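Annex B. Sample input.
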Amino acid sequence: MLTANVGWIFIIQVMISAGIFLWGYNRYVKRWGTDSGHDSVEGTYTRVDYIPSEIPYYTISYGYTVNNKRYFGSIERLIFSVDLRSSIEENTEMLKKEYLTGQTVKVFYWKEFPNEHSLNIPPSVPFFEAIGIPLLILILSNIPLLFIDYLIVSSPYN
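Annex B, continued. Sample output.
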């Protein structure tokens, strides 16, 4: 008959930890291609618009293609980021000159989710976003094992 002892509990904890570590590492590594600039394409600016709302802003739209599929994104600039002394039309024209339609822009994207992207500079790899869920599962899965370990050690039958 197989009985639980401190050694078995330790082996189970190590196996769970190793599995979750590999899962977290895999999640983190998938983002390295984007961070190093390997997963990037050329995109183009498509238009500049003024959006009247409670907090008015200008939106600069752009498009890019990954694996023959077209994706779109936009940059939003608050009205306070442009010259407030100029009219809306003048500011729109100024932004159109800055973001010329058809001008190329480098778009960095994640291979698994090409619609998640950033412009001109590679995004940083968010450590906790990639490792957070596996780390939480590791902690939650090891808490019961810690109590079993204590019960085995403090058992009067030991």
